[in-house]
Amino acid sequence: MEPIREAELDSRALEALAERAARELDSAQSLFRPELEFKVDEVSGRTVITVYHPETEEIIRQIPPEEALRLAHLLRELGSNGDLSEISLIRTRA
After folding, report:
1. Which of 2, 37, 52, 73 sits between 20 and 30 A of 16, alpha carbons compared?
2. pLDDT (tens digit, 0 to 9) for every residue of the chain, 94 residues total?
3. Is 83 helix (H, G, I), strand (E, B) or coil?
4. Are 51 and 36 within 8 A, CB to CB?
5. β-bridge partners, 38
6. CA–CA dist 19, 53 (Å, integer)
7. What is the pLDDT of residue 37?
8. Does the record bear RNA-binding in its keywords (predicted)?
């Protein structure tokens, strides 16, 4: 009989620990819930989703990335003339 009681205690203790961990994770997640911004890029017409850190307002991720939007802008600018020599996907800094 004793091993059954120990097993029951272990099971209850594990269940209580799991519940506590779930509550703590849920609480921590609410502190770091990212902020989302949805907008339409005027040039390409694409929907842009930007994910910000809630406290620092730092951009965590943007979909589509800035480079893809720049490419879409350049291609639209070029229009029908077909001159691809001016396209640079790499941003250079002096």
Report:
1. 2
2. 445 555 555 777 877 887 888 778 766 665 667 788 999 988 878 889 999 888 888 999 999 999 999 988 888 887 756 555 655 555 666 5
3. coil
4. yes
5. 49
6. 28
7. 92
8. no
pLDDT of 34 reads 78
Residues in CB range of 72: below 8 A, 6 or more apart = 41, 43, 44, 46
Q: Residues 72, 78, 83, 87: is their CA dihedral positive or negative?
A: negative
pTM over 0.85: no
C-beta of residue 58 within 8 angstroms of C-beta of residue 52: yes
- Rounded to the nearest 5 degrees, what angle is found at the Cα of 63, between the Cα atoms of 58 and 69? 105
